Amino acid sequence: MNNTIPAAGRERDNVVNLQERRLDRTVLRTYRTKADIDIILPNDKQPRLGPKVDEELQRQIEANGGLFEPLLVEPHPDFPGKFRIIDGDRRWTNSRVLVEQGKEEFRQLPIEVTDRTLSDEDRLRAWIYIHRQRKEWDAKEKEMVAYRLVDLMGRASAANILGITVRELDKLVDIFELSEKFTSLRDPSAAITWAREMMGVSKKLFTPSIVEAVVKKVNDKRITNSKDLRKLRSILPDPVARAHFLSDAGDLDSAMLRLGPTEKKPKGGLSGDLEAAVEAMKGVPWTTLQDLKGDPDILKKIDDAEALLRSLRKALS
Fold first, then answer.
1. For the chain, which domains are there?
2. What's the pLDDT tens digit per position in 115-158?
3. Does the keyword rRNA-binding apply (predicted)?
C-alpha cells in the first residue's frame, strides 16, 4: 500500500494552502490533496441510511477515470494519520468496490481535508448543507436524515440542525417510519412518495387498521399509483365507504362508489339565509308551481320579495 500522505507531517505542510469553505453557518478551512483509500475511513454517524453500493456510480467513476468531486474529510480523532469522511461515503464505498475488483488505478482518491476534527454538530450541519443543494434531498433524503438525526442526537438537536420546528421534524420522522412499511415497490426509494401521500390525509382518520389496510393493498399491488391515495380523503370520513375499503374485497375505486351524498354545510348570516331561500325555491316541484299559477297571495309575496331584494342590492352597491 502506498500512502500518498504521511498524514500528520503533511498536514502541517498544507496549512499555508488553506482555503475557506462556507457551508451555511459553518465555515471550514480546508486543503486539497490525494490519499490512499485505506487511510480514509467511513463515518459511523453517517446520516444517510440504506445500501451504498451502486453499480451505476461505479460505471461513472470508471468512465471519468476516477472521482470527479473530492471527498470532504477530517483528521480522524481516533486513528492518527488517517481521515474520516464528512461527505462522500457513497463515492468511497463504490471506489473501494472497484479496488477490490483489482482496479488499482482507483486506489488514490482526491480529498478535501479540514484543518481540524469537527464537532458532531458541525459535521452534521456541513453534510446536511451539502446534500440540500442536491436533487435527491427533496426526492428522498430529508425524511431519512430527520429519522437518523433523532436517533443520533434527539429531537430538539435534530430540529435545530435541520432548521425546522420539532413538530415539523416529527412529521418527517412519521413519514419515514411509514415508508418503511412499503416493502414491495419496484423502486424502494418511491416509498417516501407513498408515505407523503398518506400523511396528506387527516391524521385523526388514520387508525392502525386503516394504515394496515392501505399498506397491504399497496404491497399486494391493488393500489398502483400513489396519487390514488388522495381518494382516502373522501372515503375515510364516510362510514359505509370506509368499512368497504377495510374489507378484503374493497379497494379505492369500489369504496368511492359507496360514498353517500354530500351535504352542504349551511352558511351563516345574510349570505346563508339568501342561499337557503334560493335552494328552497329551486326545490319546489314543477307540479306545485302549476297549481299555484295565478294565485294572488303568492304573486303578492313575490312582488314584496322583489322589492326587498332591490332595496338590499341598492344598499349593498
1. 7-119 (3.90.1530.10), 202-263 (no CATH), 269-316 (no CATH)
2. 999 988 888 888 888 888 876 666 667 888 888 889 888 999 88
3. no
